[in-house]
Every structure is written in structure tokens, then in C-alpha cells.
Design brief:
Layout: E1 11-14, E2 26-29, H1 34-37, E3 40-41, H2 43-56, E4 64-65, H3 75-87, E5 94-99, E6 112-113, H4 118-122, E7 127-135, H5 151-154, E8 158-163, H6 169-172, E9 179-182, H7 185-198, E10 203-208, H8 228-237, E11 242-248, H9 259-267, H10 276-300
Helix pairs in contact: 7-8, 8-10
Length: 301
Amino acid sequence: MERTELNAQPVVLDVDGSVGSLPGELRLPLQHWQEQVRFGCGLRRFARFRAALDAQLPAAHGTALMGSGDFHHLSWPLIERCIAARALSSGRPLRVVVLDNHPDNMRFPWGVHCGSWVRRVALHPAVSHVHVAGITSGDIGRAHAWENYLTPLRAGRLSYWSAGVDTGWARRLGVDSAFRSFASVAELSRTLARMLREQAQPTYLSIDKDVFAPEVVRTNWDQGRMLESEAMDIIGALSGQIVGSDITGDVSSWRYATWWKRWMSAGDGQDTQIGAQTLATWQLGQHAFNERLVERLQQAG
């Protein structure tokens, strides 16, 4: 198994100022992009952001921390950078594992946003499969079935790992083989960890902290039920396999200047404006959790 670069310094994509200082970090000042790319944007604007990011990121770095879950679509260029770097030394396909309370494979008409990026990664020819695990959100339930992109599910490139969600609609549309349903997140986590140990391959791991129960850490999205110990076991199961990783799901307060972002985030039930005292308390918990996650990822490398 090829070795990873995860013992290198963590890098903070500082778009919203939410990520606290980490030992040995590299911090990229990107806050002037916040309104432009937060939640989502058109592909031309995203291409300009990607070019600015590429100009600042070193060729090798450790875990990338991206701030709020509103920026989870930044995983897309990070994964493509990982693919490009590996192409120089290995032609092996890349597996992507996403721990998230949402599928991030939802229809979006204006380019890419934090809930639509997975489709683009899953259909990349150098990606063998994407596993989105920890979903307890109704985003994959019957009421929202029409919002999910079906192409990567039908193509066998994407799997949803969920607990407590009625996904019977998938059978009627012929995509039930892409769904792994469990009675509990604990059972889901054990099964996923076992699969990752038994089917070792180069893997990119993306963690959105809204996958965790609120007693673990607080985010500004609806949250799942995963425990810290379950996530740490999943990371441990990937020991020696991780070739890139990122963390999102930090919390920051922001009022969108763009009308459709205000409208869509409100429709998603997102809390974007948080009181100063509450925000400070949540960020303390977030920072301590980031330190533990980064340390565990470095150990798994």
C-alpha cells in the first residue's frame, strides 16, 4: 500500500475564520472569497476560486480544514488535486469515503454547492467508488427522492450508508443496490469499518462534522447520530490507506448578500446567524474536536 502525506502539516483554507489555530498548520487567507463561494456558486466563479487555491496550496500537505459545512464543495478540487498528484506515481483508482449526515448528491441548477458536489467526484474516471456514510437526514427519504442525482447511483459509482431513513423508493427506481440501510449508526459504523479493513485501497476521506450527534459537537446544519468513537474506529480501519483527507462542519455566523443563497439556505433549515456567546461556546468544542481528528488522521497515515 502506498504511503500517505498525512504526516505533513495540516492546511486551513481560511474562508470564514471559524477554524482555530492548529499545531504546525499552514493557513491560507481566503476570506475575501466567502460570499462568492459560500453555500454554492456558478462554475466560472468556482474555477476562479480553484485557480487561486492552486496558486497557494503546496504540492504535499496534511488534512485540509475548510471551515463551515457551507464549504463542503471545496472537497471537489482537493480530491482532483489528489488524483493529479497520484497519477505521477500510481494509476490505481481512488476510493472516496465521506462521513456526512447528508448525501451531498442533490440537484443544484446554478453550478456547484455544498450539497451537490459528490456527483462530480463519483463520476470522475479516476474514482472507483464514493461511499457517503452516516446519513440520517431525510434528504434520501421518499419526499426528497426526486432531488437526488440518479446517474452515479445507477452507474454503481456511489453508495449511501444510512440509518433510520425509509429508502423504499430506491427499489422502485432500480437503484436499491446503491443503498446500505442499517437499524443504527453503530451498526453502520461497524460494518463500514470492517469493509474498509478487508477491502484496502487508496482512499480519500472527507469528514463533515454534521454527521455527529449534537452532544459530540455542534454545527449549524441538522445533525446525525454518529459518536466520536465510531468515527475514530473508521479512521483506524483506513490506517495506511489514506492518501488525502479534509474536515468541514465548523460553525460561523454569516448573512448572505446573495438572494438565492438566503432563500435556499432558509429552505434547508440552515442556521447562518448565531449569537456571539453561543458561537464562541460551539467553536471551543469544535476546535478541541478538530485537534483530536487531525491527530487521529496523522496516526492513520
